[in-house]
Amino acid sequence: MKSIRRQLVVWITGALALGIAAVAFATYHAALQQIGSLFDAALTQIAQAVHLREDWAEAGNVRIAQEEVAFAVRAYDDGGRVFFESGLPSLPPDAPKTLDPGFSVVDTPDGPWRVYTHVSPEGVIQVAQAEAVRDALARELSLRMLLPELLFVPVLALLVAWILKRALAPLDQTSVRVRERNAARLDPLPTEGVPKELAPLVEQVNALLGRLAASLEAERRFVADAAHELRSPVAALALQIQLAERAPTEAARAAALAELKKGVARAGRLVQQLLDLARLEPGIPSEVPGPVDLAEVAREVIGGFAARADSQDVDLGADAPPSALVIGNASELRSLVANLVDNALRYAPARTAVTVSLREVPDAIELAVEDAGPGIPPEQRERVLRRFQRVEGDLTAGIGLGLPIAKTIVERHRGSMVLSEARPGRQPPGLSVQIRLPAAQPARAALAA
Question: Which of 130, 319, 332, 373 could pair with 347 as two cysteines, CB 3.0-4.6 Å apart?
Answer without folding.
Answer: 373
